[in-house]
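Ticket 4471: requesting a sanity check on a complex prediction with pyridoxal-5'-phosphate. Repro inputs:
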Amino acid sequence: MSNHRLTQLQPYPFERLRDLHKDWQHHGDLAHIPLSLGEPKHPPPRFVVEALANVDALTQQLGIYPATKGNDDLRLAISEWLERRFAIRVDPDQQILPVYGTREALFAVAQALLSGKPGSLVGMPNPFYQIYEGAALLAGASPLYIANLEENDYQADFAAVTDAQWQAIEMVYVCSPGNPTGQIMSETDMEELIALAHRHDFTVVSDECYSELYYDDKNIPSSLLAVAQRVSQRMGKRPFERCLSFHSLSKRSNLPGLRSGFVAGDPELVRQYLSYRTYHGCAMSAHHQHASALAWRDETHVIENRLLYRDKFAAVGDILAPHYDLRQPQGGFYHWLRTPIDDLSFSQRLLQEQHVTVMPGTFLGRDTATNELAGGNPGQGHVRVAWVAAKEDCLVAAQRLADFAINLSADGGR
Ligand SMILES: Cc1ncc(COP(=O)(O)O)c(C=O)c1O
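Returned structure tokens:
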């Protein structure tokens, strides 16, 4: 006997990519440039590294069993950051939990909060960060893929969801800025979703791990909690009722290896989630909590990081724009690039000819023909290009992408 739900899991996109590229190796002398993985490569803040390397503090911290709820100082640092950044008043005692990065937390929240009732649905964007789907399936729910199509400005098309589907939905994942589309969800759309959550009794899980990487100071990502705060006050509801936001130091502070983030929002959901996590056994170690508090309290390195991405996107954009139907993302660090040929062949040939790896959109989306929403896989015809490496490497890779497009049009896109 084993958990039959494991068989429902899809192969992870990187596994599918390895398979796709099996017979398409590059035989020339170009060095490989991977643009498929969104692993931040800018340097982490020095003061965080120094705090982690402090031997006296570490000796003391390693002798502590940390509490799942986290320590007061970290929760306070997070609540102060939320107030500075989004003008949200979050009670650090009841409405915040530190997590080991948003990946595990976005997965575990489904295990903690979904009922497991047959027929229950979890809404998610399509294409999407793959954890949402695995979380829904392993919690006994079915994913409802809500297309983010180009004609809808790559925003999730909630209008396509039927009343019967809303009734069956227990949780909706949203991601803003989105991976892979780079689109920011507007406060108006967030407010409509919260209204739907109240009408149909579901939880909104907002993945905001890219919130600090944006490209236009007039279009800064908001937080679901900023909107929920106003809705709750206006409607006389519990603070942030039905809403949870997830944040991370991985992209904001270039600390993907620290595994540090938090969830904040509805105190009733946080209470249930904490009780799940106590058994799950995922308390953040004391030295990581201390280093995390330092990172949340500093904004200088975040501003510098954002400028590095802006500079890089401007530079690679200049190289790519003459050759691709290029759209600048509103946030995050990906181009969601329209491909002149199908995305799978594009990715194979790009590897073989230019030794550059990108992620085909097909692997990040699902074919929705079977769930009565917009047919087809909305990831098709796109590749996700992660501009995480140092600028010099990104410039070389952008030039190779440009050369590739020139060669493609020379041979008629065959
Ligand atoms: C949309 C999205 N959410 C969550 C994560 C997880 O990030 P972490 O666990 O490092 O916080 C990622 C990582 O790539 C992501 O792209």
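Notes from triage: The pocket of pyridoxal-5'-phosphate is lined by residues 38, 101-103, 129, 175, 179, 207, 209, 248, 250, 256, 261 (CB under 6 Å). Leaving this open until the requester confirms.
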